Give the backbone structure.
Amino acid sequence: EDPWIRKSLTFCETGDLIQEILEALTPYNLKSEDTYSIRLAIDETIANAWRHGLGGNDKGIFDACYYISDLGFRLRVSDPGSGFDHESLPDPTVPENLFKASGRGVFLIRQMMDEVEFNDAGNEITVMKRFEPANEDEDICYDDLVIQTHDEMDKQQDSLEQARRVEVPAKKPEKELNLAAKDAILAKFDFD
């Protein structure tokens, strides 16, 4: 029997998929940061399929399949687009890319997941997160993990565009600025 749960869906139907996956994760008693990492990877893989593979077409169809076991979570998202070269993506933590309005999704996925693979064409991504069950004292939280609407995504892009206009202080050495940039990006995803 094939353990993968397969879906062909539009971007407008992704909220149901995300809710289904989060509910399926509940029995695994995951740490809240692992749940957050999985949620972020789901959001980013779907957003990339929609933005790049479907050109923002809400009615375009893409495929998603997932598999959950005692060992971990796997998600595969593929779209009909021409793909991209995932190895040549610019580093979003270098000074010239810090305030760009996009370009962090794959970086964040790579930081949050244990395995990330692309097909040769670059229009399919498979991510994997190994499970480490939470201790009884740890917080398990799904309540605040809600999908962003298109308007919310647009507002986020607008705020990133405004942030891009802020000048980076020129007096900091590049190495120190790189570390500060990485900390600033990762601080947005504080797990405390």
About this structure: The longest strand covers residues 62-69. Residues 53 and 81 are 4 Å apart (CA to CA). Helices lie at 14-25, 32-53, 105-112, 150-164, 174-187. Confidence is low (pLDDT under 50) at residues 140-150, 166-175.
